[in-house]
Structure formats: C-alpha cells, structure tokens
Amino acid sequence: MKTFVVGISGVTNGGKTTLAKKLQKQLPNCSVISQDDYFKPESEIKIDENGFLQYDELEALNMETLMSAVYSQMKNPRNSLESDDLESAEEVPILIIEGFLLYTYKPLDSVWNRRYFLTIPYEECKRRRSTRVYEPPDPPGYFDGHVWPMYLKHRKEIEDIARNIAPLLCTSEVWR
After folding, report:
1. 65 found inside a domain
2. Under the cellular component aspect of Gene Ontology, which terms does the record hold (predicted)?
3. In this predicted model, what pLDDT tens digit does every residue of 27-67 receive, in sequence order?
C-alpha cells in the first residue's frame, strides 16, 4: 500500500514538531521524520560576513540522508501502533515530514501528497525563539540579523513556486 506523505514546514518555532507529534498520536500507521535530525556538525556550517552560522540554508543539512530515510520509510512503513490490530494494519501508512526547509528542496517534490506551511507573527516567533535553548546558542542579534530574514527569503521562494502548499497561521492557543 502506498504511503501518504504530508509535509509540515514553516517558520522557526512555529509549531511544526508539536503538530507532527500530535498528529502521530492521533493517526494510526503514522510516522514522523524531523528535518532537525539531519543538521551537519557545527564544524561544517558556513559562517556569513556578520559571523553568524548559516543554519538556515539547505547546505547546513544532510538532505541526501534525509531523502534516504524518506524512501526507506515509504518502502517499509513503520507505524506508531503498538498492537497487531489487523483492521488498523490495513489502513494507509502516513509519513509526516516536518522541517523548516522542505519545499525548496526539489527531490522532495515527488513524494508529497499534502503540504502545509505554518506561520506565526514576527513578535510571537521572536518570543518563542528566545525561550528555546540551542547548541550552539544564538548569539546576540542572530534572530533579527539572520533567522527572520532567512525565513522571509525562504517564504518568498515558496510563494513564487506556489505548488499547492496550504498556509496555516498558528497561535499559542492552537496546541493547548
């Protein structure tokens, strides 16, 4: 049976992982692949003219390894069920791929059945980002000098492509 593949992309700290995990708990035969699990080591990340590590570019990710995981999952779906319930086993396997740079990576274009793009207002994004702990930590000015401008750049690229991506505006109340 063919795996149904859903993409959840969007702004940093926009709720992608939270949504994917909540869906995984609710949907039988559902697995999640998180793009955040495919970052290259810090020593391989480019540094821009302002001294900021360029984590918000495709080159910072092992996308070929991610694609291998996607194809493997599509070929041999694992699911979130803990039982051998035959009725559930007959349901279509669902794979959710979540991450901030999914739709500008052309090899993924051939796998999507549905695509969603989460966005939140600048102020909320900055607030959420300030509460997270990153390794390495965000240096002063990183959000305004790099993270938000890169998000706007990638969002524009996605809007220009316009390939059946459904936008979702998220608020804090959505995930409670």
Report:
1. yes
2. cytosol
3. 989 999 999 999 999 999 999 898 889 999 999 999 999 99
174 belongs to a structural domain: no
- Reply yes or no on whether 85 is catalytic: no
Domain count for the chain: 1
* Rounded CA Rg of the chain: 17
pTM listed for this prediction: 0.86
Structure tokens at 115: 């695509």
Which of 36, 37, 85, 144 is catalytic? The answer is: 36
The residue segments making up the domain with residue 25 are 4-80+90-169
Write out the DSSP string of 67-117.
Answer: HHHHHHHHHS---S--S--HHHHTSPPEEEEE-SS-TT-GGGGGT-SEEEE
